[in-house]
Amino acid sequence: QIRDLEALTRFSEEELDELEKKFSTLSVSGSVQKSDYDKLYPEKYSVLFLDPIIKEQVFMAFDQDSDGTIDFRDYIFTLSTITRGTSKSKVKLLYHIFNPDKDGYITKDQFATLLKWQYRVLGITNSTETMI
Question: pTM of the full predicted structure?
Fold first, then answer.
């Protein structure tokens, strides 16, 4: 599995071995539950998990096979996209996060959620309700 992932991601075999060790500390039967998945990602990505709605949407986007858990493959593909992906792949991932119903459109409410999250990430504490 490691060699396959090495060919499909931008991680070396050594990096994948280290990531697998980290994954196994949180894994139950080869998968990480929704309640723990945010612990897999480096601290600098904690902004993805500030808002419970966004945290849920991030989980849905990261759970690539939609089985309700994050398996090692899901983890590696999303981490690869976040840390080493092209601008296009990162935008595509963000689109999946902010369009959770996957209908092909970002609604006004979904866009408002995106803006509120962005204000929070930037530390803007004014009421975003009046801004949006």
Answer: 0.76
